[in-house]
Specification:
Elements lengths: L1 H30 L12 H17 L1 H22 L7 H15 L4 H16 L1 H11 L2 H20 L13 H25 L1 H12 L4 H14 L4 H26 L1 H31 L14 H25 L4 H9 L4 H12 L9 H48 L1
Length: 416
């Protein structure tokens, strides 16, 4: 008897969710009506009844829900046919059918149905901002770039093999394609920041955030932006330098999570490296403001696929060279191996060394040099990425910052 009472309460709760769905969507559609009473197919009462129709039909039988959806679809189609010349839009008709389905879904998954109803109401209410953004803000080129990025991520990436192939089994096609996606994504973020915040603020902010994803990819993306729009070279350089600051911050977080003792041993180099690159980046940023760096009125493409592919190819060459050195010389020492791995990524050797220290196979003091070597060699890869993507003008400002940061880390190790 108690179970029946609980089941009855659940059914009433689900019916209440269906009622709320109809009222929510119906309220929005009611407010969207014009001054004349016949300007829209349905209002709050129709949508509420449609949601309850779906709920009750589901209670009786799934096939009754199918019949209800089909009948409402036919009624909506007939109503649309009668008013197509005055009101050619299909939004209300489609929403009415969808409301019946949501009412039925509320009987088995009320949370999901309510979430979808709220999302639908937001989309309906945001008609003017969405249309204005798509028609007036987003350019055709930006839309094409978004489709390319979506295809690269959702279509191509799942098809790329996730295994090591090529000379010395050094190439993982999936990882290389992820680099291509990262460069395009970071460039798109920079493009969006330029549109919203302007060049002097947007690119440094994007560089700082994107550096947590991949500093090398960020340097490449910023170099591409500098080559495309030379007026923003100062802001692009700042973004590249602040991505190097993100590397320091990320290494700090990794060491804190894996082995705090190694973090304490690395504290001085990390502090010196972070402060030095932050100061240099701020100088470049302030210089850009002082020079009254012009804001861009009309921007072109969000990213360059060619640049992303080129940078990925450079990383592939570096990976093959790393694997070749490792195969020829073997495990000649942890420092050498860390340096080879640092050509492509500084996080992997840092995690490896910190793990050795955490397991007692290496003292925290002895872990400092392999990490610094990996960090220094990784800075060399960033310098190559700066030259390849941004050219001489961009690299001539980024490379001194990298040298200052690397020198500061080694100076701190020598002093402390």
């Amino acid at each position: 008897m108690e179970n029946l009472v609980i089941l009855d309460n659940i059914l009433w709760l689900n019916l209440a969710v269906a009622l709320g769905i109809g009222l929510l969507i119906g309220t929005e559609r009611e407010r969207s009506k014009g001054p004349a009473p016949d300007t829209m197919l349905a209002g709050i009462r129709t949508f509420t009844i449609a949601a309850l129709l779906g709920a009750v039909s589901t209670l009786v039988s799934f096939w009754l829900l199918v019949v209800a959806v089909m009948c409402v679809t036919v009624f909506a189609a007939l109503a649309y046919q009668a008013r197509v010349k005055e009101h050619p839009g299909l939004t209300t008709e489609m929403t009415l059918v969808f409301t019946v389905i949501l009412g039925g879904l509320a009987m088995s998954a009320p949370s999901l149905a309510a979430s979808l109803a709220v999302t639908s109401a937001i989309l309906l209410a945001a008609k003017e901002p969405i249309h204005g953004f798509v028609r007036g803000t987003v350019t055709k080129e930006e839309l094409n770039d978004f489709l390319i990025l979506a295809a690269a991520t959702l279509i191509v990436l799942p098809l790329v093999p996730n295994e090591f192939i090529g000379p010395f089994s050094a190439i993982n096609p999936r990882n290389l394609w992820l680099i291509v996606i990262l460069v395009m994504f970071i460039s798109a973020l920079g493009h969006l920041a330029l549109r919203l915040l302007g060049g002097r603020i947007g690119l440094p902010l994007v560089g700082l955030v994107s550096g947590f994803i991949s500093s090398i990819a960020t340097v490449g993306a910023m170099g591409e932006r500098a080559k495309e729009t030379p007026e923003l070279i100062g802001a692009a350089v700042s973004g590249a330098l602040f991505s190097c600051l993100s590397t320091i911050l990320q290494l700090t977080l990794l060491l804190a999570a894996i082995h705090p003792a190694t973090l304490r041993a690395m504290s001085a180099p990390l502090v010196f490296g972070g402060i030095s690159i932050a100061i240099y980046g701020l100088i470049i940023t302030i210089s850009c403001f002082h020079k009254n760096c012009p804001e861009m009125g009309q921007l072109s493409r969000s990213f360059s696929v060619k640049t992303a592919l080129t940078l990925s190819a450079v990383i592939a060459v570096v990976l093959i060279a790393s694997a070749a050195l490792n195969a020829w010389f073997g495990q000649a020492g942890l420092v050498f191996v860390s340096g080879v791995a640092g050509l492509a990524d500084v996080h992997a050797p840092t995690i490896s060394v910190a793990t050795l220290a955490a397991t007692g196979n290496l003292s925290p003091a002895d872990a400092v040099i392999p990490i610094l070597v990996a960090f220094s060699v990784n800075a060399l890869s960033k310098a190559v990425a700066a030259v390849v993507s941004g050219g001489k003008a961009f690299a001539s400002q980024v490379i001194p910052g990298l040298l200052i940061q690397v020198s500061a880390t080694w100076l701190a190790w020598w002093l402390f």
